[in-house]
Fold these 2 entries.
Entry 1:
Amino acid sequence: MIQLEQLSKFYGSDHDAICALNNVDLTVPKGSITGVIGVSGAGKSTLIRCVNMLERPSSGRVLVDGQDLTQLDAPALRKARHDIGMIFQHFNLLDSRTVYQNIAFPLELMGFDKNAMKERITPLLELTGLSDKKDRYPSALSGGQKQRVAIARALASRPKVLLCDEATSALDPQTTSSILELLREINQELGLTILLITHEMEVVKSICDSVALISGGELVETSKVGPFFTAPSTKLGREFLEEFLRIDPPKSLLDRLSSDGSDKPYPVIRIIFNDENVASPLISQLARSFELDISILQAKIEDIQGHTLGLMIAEFRGNAAHIEKALARLSDMQLSTEVLGYVD
Ligand SMILES: Nc1ncnc2c1ncn2[C@@H]1O[C@H](COP(=O)(O)OP(=O)(O)O)[C@@H](O)[C@H]1O
Ligand SMILES: [Mg+2]
């Protein structure tokens, strides 16, 4: 378990210091995968680097399995770090060492002998699918393979916690999903607690149990992943969700669309819906109750860990007063709706 308590970090000297983290409280439960999401510069890397003291917090506490790392002297901190593995966006492998030697590196520092090392490394090569690449140098590996080496190296000391700083941001979508799958497997098989940071909702959606949203060094929202994707509770959360769901209306629609409702009578509406208000019965009910013709112009449905999340763009045709009532009904239902424009 990781607990961050009132964590703050300033870079630079007093008068022109940058506040990268401001009184952050965050708990990562044992065995969970927790994602911290935010835009570039939000403080994500600072936060994760404070967990293993790569950055010293300016104030606050960092507890890993109940031990406050901010209070440890250098030897005690070195020992505590064996419990914390870390992987990075750009892998940070040693180019002059083979795959095997890269994974061996932390074990050498811990004073392992050759045999003990081999005993540790062989199953890690297997776990990460690198057994046949153990004598290769990083320059002969793909990005995904490099990240697998980094994961094996991070696991060599048998940590309880794995920190991932944008670990898939340099990878293509297919490689990203295979690395995320590996992380999920490690989480489940080894019971490893994972804290990852990302700017991508897709990563959060794929493997996280919980998510924390950070902005300007402050924690703005924490939630389980299902509720976060179906009903984020902050404006920033909704912006991330919209970005994730974004589908551009087809050009043929955009050409017809006017921002002014006075010359074109029929609204085009974007609706975000979830488990509680699955769209299709809703649309047919509205059509029936208010005698409208509703055409669905575009739709997207996502399954978020068993929760349904969807976005729909639809055109409402009918009597103006009836359309107004239908829109009022939608807003009563707490659905997120937006009029994109009008058509005739
Ligand atoms: N070593 C540093 N020295 C000075 N400012 C830094 C340093 N590292 C990060 N910052 C600043 O702290 C803020 C948060 O940065 P960072 O934690 O890297 O954010 P993120 O990982 O979310 O992009 C940014 O304003 C950044 O410019
Ligand atoms: Mg960063």
Note: The mean pLDDT is 93.
Entry 2:
Amino acid sequence: MVSATAQRPQAGHLRAMRQDMIGYLEGLSQQGDFLKIPLGLGTAYYLNHPDDIREVLVTQAELFHKPSTIKYAASGLFGENLFTTDGRLWKVLRQTMQPAFQSQQIRDHAQIMIDETAKMVSQWHSGQMIEICQAMMDLTMGITSQAFFGVDLRDRPEAKNIVRFIELFNQRISGIPVPAWVPLPATREMKTQIAQAAQLFDALINERRHTSRIYTDILAMLVAAQASDTTGLITDQQVRNEVMNLFAAGYEVTANSLAFALHLIDQYPTVETRLRAEIDQILGNRAITFEDLTNMPYLECVLKESMRLMPVTAVFARQATQTVTWADRTIPKNAAVLISPWTLHRRSDIYPDSLTFDPDRFDISGRSQMPKFAYLPFSGGTRICIGQAFAMTQMRINLATILQRYRLSTTPDYVMQPYFSFNTRPQDGLPMQLQTI
Ligand code: HEM
């Protein structure tokens, strides 16, 4: 079967994507599972069927790379990293970093997650209005920076620059990437910010090289990996790139996933009641521990379901390195492939009543009833998110600790408007009122 061509939106595909990516993707999903999108300078294919997605992410994954537009946007600002690179460098980096994300390592970081969340809620009070996106951003920045490189970034003046850099970079890769040599004001600003961030991370790395103190965080693991590296690929600059990348890749998406989860819990009182009953039964008034998580299956289902309905990574892309075929599908060389967890997760043939928030879709025993590659909040295949277990552990601890103390609700006139800028977040933030339990 030859692919259908996606109807050209009035504004043109690229402009429609930039104006309202979520609306654009939803429009595509109405037109078919496998669509060709003529983009002027190139062609993209939209894939929305689990069988086709499995071909790209698993069966023929070697033939698909990260899109050159991402590398192009990053060039001149920072070097390649685990997120942007492919081939041998990607394999070496992934093998080097994977051990830092095993369950024992995550368990070691759980206390930071518990303490930081408890500290945050102890500063809240009943009746207060909180802008949840900002509060979650602050929380995840504190947790991620301490767990990854042993420093609370919130205490450092450079933090503002890093946050602004991530914001500008996300805007850059969501639009048409402009090379870093074009003297745009945003590019100049980004170059200054990245240089300041690099100074901070270089200082942290040097400190580690010359200390006798034993650290068990991700930075320590990277510094040790560099010392024993025989490939020559883990250079000083690469270590710095990875530390910055892990931080940038992790903190904002986790914060926005938490915001969407809190919003959905507020919108569905029966889910909230059942979740509160589980938290109450397992924790009562005491602080959560890492071990408690295994006894809180409904909490996990709630989180999984919120990432089904509102996945922060609404779309991600690959690029064919040669012409690739399977069944009756053909993706020409250099064409981009768009995979949208947002629209995939809303397929009503896979998820009946798909717009309803229903954590019972996820089997409480942990067994999945979904077709494989129909649920991709963290992507899938070899390039599945390296921080998945870290994020899932952190978010369950965050949610249980917050809900144990407070009920959070939006005002009746609040309308959730998801906004896409590489990642997805509530457009105008998420103001919620606190009420003590
Ligand atoms: C709820 C939180 C998170 C979500 C929804 C999420 C989602 C994703 C997705 C969809 C991808 C695949 C992107 C693609 O293939 O283009 C990815 C990759 C990645 N994520 Fe996450 N992520 C989360 C948390 C984290 C955290 C905490 C870290 C930090 C350790 C992290 C680090 C990365 C890295 C380094 C990659 C690239 C992996 C590779 O290509 O080998 N993520 N993430």
Note: Residues 236-267 form the longest helix (32 residues).
